[in-house]
Amino acid sequence: EFRRVLFRSVNFISINATEKDKKTKEIVKSNNITLVPTMIFLDKNRNEIKRTEGAISKEELISNLEELCNG
């Protein structure tokens, strides 16, 4: 049930930070992305509330999302 609610209330945006186009470079710089993969969790006002750098397991991702959704 949590997963259904989560995927209805969360937007996921994927950016290939290794691309060299101007827009991607701006996003990487403005978000201080220095390691791939990086996941940045934003609130509804686009303020960063959590960041993970480096690979994480599916279970760790779900745990992070549950933590964020439950306040």
Summarize this entry quickly.
The protein is α+β, with helices and mostly antiparallel strands. Helix content is about 40%, strand content about 15%.
Task: Write out key terms for the chains shown.
71 residues, single chain, 3 helices, two-stranded antiparallel ribbon, 41% helix, alpha+beta
Give a structural overview:
By secondary structure, this protein is of the alpha+beta class. Helices cover 41% and strands 15% of the residues. It is built from 3 helices and 2 strands, in the order ααββα. The chain has helices at residues 2-9, 22-30, 58-69; strands at residues 38-42, 48-53. A two-stranded antiparallel ribbon has the order 1-2. The longest helix has 12 residues, at 58-69. It is globular, with a radius of gyration of 13 Å. The relative contact order is 0.16.
SSE succession: HHEEH
Query: Uncertain segments of ≥5 residues (pLDDT<50)?
Result: none
What does the largest sheet look like?
Answer: 2 strands, antiparallel
Q: What's the oligomerization state? A: single chain
Radius of gyration: 13 Å
> How much beta, percentage-wise?
15-25%
Count the strands? 2
What spatial order of strands do you see in the largest sheet?
1-2
Mean of all residue-level pLDDT scores: 87
The tally of helices reads: 3
Considering DSSP H and I runs of 4 or more, what fraction of the residues is helical? Answer: 40-55%
Shape designation = globular
* Backbone structural class: alpha+beta
The CA-CA distance between the termini, in Å, is 18 Å
